[in-house]
Amino acid sequence: MSVGTDARGRPKATSRETIAEAACELFLEQGYAATTVADITSRAGVSRSSFFNYFASKSDVLWGGFDERVDAVVAALATGAPVAGALRAIVEGFAPDSLALAITNGEAMGLTADLDAERSLRCGRLARAVSDRLVAGGSARLSADVRGAAAAGAVLAAVWDWASSGAARSDLVPLLDEALAEASVIL
Question: Is this prediction's pTM over 0.85?
Fold first, then answer.
């Protein structure tokens, strides 16, 4: 076996993509709730352990790429990065992925409620990180909490709008800038 391949000879980079593609196909065909990890691994032609090498859960297939970006931004904010630049880092270069497909096809996949719940969790995490950064910069907690919530809501609203309007057709950064302006967030 060569370096960078799994036991079946598939390059590691494509294994993650293959699993995500198989999962999304199944979510569209039979719904998110009815699709099991076993269904996904069978469709993708990989083992259960291979699935868990790439994804912590079925939900991670959809949210993994976004969560990696949020993790990086939370870490950057904790070290004093400027808020506006950090928020832009979440969306810069964000390409259509499983999350965009799920947002666009949430009803068909039967996961609209799941998307809403998961969106709220990410919004809350991001809001707290922005708020903490603003407090560290001298803002009062109430002001920081309100501004953090508005900023996090703007990020998620921009992602939703971008995905819903055909993610490949537009750049996400201007949508984020517009969403932040709509929220009247001065960062």
Answer: yes
